[in-house]
Amino acid sequence: MADRITITLEPRNIIGKKVRNLRRSGIIPVHLYGPGIEARSLQSQGPDLVRVLTQAGGNTPIAITVEGEPAEHLAFAREIQWDPVRGTLVHVDFLRAEVTQRMSAEIPVILE
């Protein structure tokens, strides 16, 4: 695929209410989970993550690499949380897709 959407995420050790300090510095917490992997707490720079989510929408897979790991995960943005007052990105959940299994997704139909 020439127009493949990719992002590199960093491992995150900070959890709980301390994540608020990460958000203030422009870092967005991310969770990656799904079949075949253990749930992971990750993080990404806000502008990079917004760019990728805008390109992918809700039905395009995203190739995710975690810093320091050779494996690449194919995932969909499952839940995207926005701050209702400021309109900034708060949190993203990525659901890893198993390439060998059948899955269902909503696909928009645009009539012209």
Describe the structure.
The protein is an alpha/beta fold and 112 residues long. It is built from two helices and six strands, in the order E-H-E-E-H-E-E-E. The protein has a six-stranded mixed β-barrel. The radius of gyration is 15 Å and the shape is globular. The protein starts with 5 loop residues before the first strand and ends in a 16-residue tail after the last strand. 13% of the residues are buried. The mean pLDDT is 89.
Write the layout of secondary structure elements.
Blueprint: E1 6-11, H1 19-24, E2 27-33, E3 40-45, H2 46-56, E4 62-66, E5 72-82, E6 89-96
Parallel strand pairs: 1-4, 2-6
Antiparallel strand pairs: 1-3, 2-3, 4-5, 5-6
Uncertain runs are none
Instruction: Using the CA coordinates, give the radius of gyration.
Output: 15 Å
The strands making up the biggest β-sheet line up spatially as: 1-3-2-6-5-4
Q: Tell me, what's the shape? A: globular
Distance between the termini: 26 Å
Taken as a percent bin, the fraction of beta residues is 35-45%
Class from helix and strand fractions: alpha/beta
